[in-house]
Amino acid sequence: MAGGEVATCTPAFVSRVVQSRWFVVFASIVVMAASGSTYIFALYSKVLRSKLGYNQQTLNTLSFFKDLGTNVGIVSGLVQQVAPPWAVLLIGAAMNLAGYLMIYLALTGRTAEPPVWLMCLYICVGANALTFSNTSALVVCVKNFPESRGIVIGLLKSFVGLSGAIYTQLYLAIYGDDASSLVLLVAWLPAAFNLLCVYTIRVLPYLRRLDGGKPYSKPFYHFLYLSIVLAAYLLVMIIVQKQVHFSHAAYVVGATVLLLILFSPVGVVVREEYKAACQLEQSLQQPPSIAVEEPTTSAEKKKADDDDESPPLCGGGGVTGCVSNMFRPPALGEDYSIMQALVSVEMIVLFVISVFGIGGTLTAIDNMAQIGQSLGYPAKSINTFVSLISIWNYAGRAGAGYISEFLLHRYRFPRPLVLTAVLLVSCVGHLLIAFGVPQSLYAASVIIGFCFGAQWPLLFAIISEVFGLKYYSSLFNFGSAASPAGAYVLNVIVAGRLYDAEAAKQHGGHAVVGDKICKGVNCFKHAFLIITAVTFGGVLVSLILVWRTRNFYRGDIYAKFKVAPAATTDASSDGGGVEMVEGTEASAPEEKSKKKKEVVNEDLY
After folding, report:
1. What is the pLDDT of residues 578-594, one digit of tens each?
2. The model's pTM
3. Is residue 111 classed exposed, middle or buried when 0-12, 13-18 and 19+ CB atoms within 10 A define those classes?
């Protein structure tokens, strides 16, 4: 076609779009937007209390098993190592549907009331299904864009943060104000999104850029802008719905607009593929460049083959070699085996941070409805707190990913130090809850939501940078597996028991079940003073990681993804010796002017 233009309404162009690496990002966004159903437990926990007669400690036990399923993704990580991403997504869809559907049937009386241990199993299976979705989408995108991993993780995890507010709007539009039906929505929606994207999320070959070039990340910022639009829309809807009575038709219209914004990133994908196709069309009309490459030696080929193979679980060499290699890890940033990573000081510190930091913020999020009730806030305000947590959870995830990546590239500012700052700020939110400052729960929900969201992309990015990418699907799940331990201790043993003890005092020493609740600041005061103390302990421990990785982050941690120009091009060609690689930007203005002429066939992805 003349002028380098490309027809877009053709099967070939549609196939190109669906098979592109940017469509993988879009599909992952859709999957992740439905993967945060565990963060709306507070919305249907009151129904569990009233219909099944649970007390606060039982609710917190259920919450612990929910968090256990959400964060212990070791099985999904190991499955990802040996199975294709589509298989991981299908397993997640089946588990999610089975687990939450059984909870819905129990709530609506369609089955006999299950014992508590069986309800714990149901919610654990349903929540664990989300680790399969998270692992498949997140690991694939990080491997497709290794030099933008902070941005990638922050973007994808930010949609998980928004999913609580998304679920709220959708269930009001589909089922009305029925908290039991919210559980049904949680059962089928993630499964449907997994099936929709099952064959589009996959690892694609990474084309290394020339040394001195910059990673091509403009589309990520366009995705970010659209996510901000979505977050702003959800925030406006939350505020308006608290002030104005909405009919069911109004909720339907609002949910329709929400879905249009959610799926709008596909426009970014289409635009990027159209630009790439036009550049390819133009390059075919120009005289080809002649590249001469030095032949690869047999030693280099052997090394490349070795690099393609996954490292052994613990370094190889049998049992003796395994134990020996466990304590002889490679340099930071190289590919660790699983056992080398697990016994390293860096991973142990990350475990402690996960227990103290994420465990404390999880406790606050899971108990936000009960905290609001105990402090005398009206029901509408309590729902606002839950929604605000979702919005600021999004802001923390997106902000931590993009800002930490900017600080790292521009100033070599270490990501572990950003994590330390986030833990320190979360202590302020815990103290506001502990002392019950009048009208401070709004600020506390903002701080807790932001800090909880910010910890995840920082934790996952640090693991990928320090321990390498070959076993990343397993290692990042190991890294998050420690948070349920903190959530159990702080939520069930500390917060749950202290709440029930205070409530029993207020009700004449009788155990509190059903609709009886605790009132006053003392219901959660001592629990959150303890949480503040252990979180500050996590701040101090995190400084060990900052110190041990200081030299690593001062260097170029992405140097392995750059290549020095190994090929020489014909000086008579229009390219002037410039070799463009897909996924990069030219490093000088004059190179940018020649980019359209020098797009190679790899630009087809």
Report:
1. 333 344 343 444 444 44
2. 0.79
3. exposed
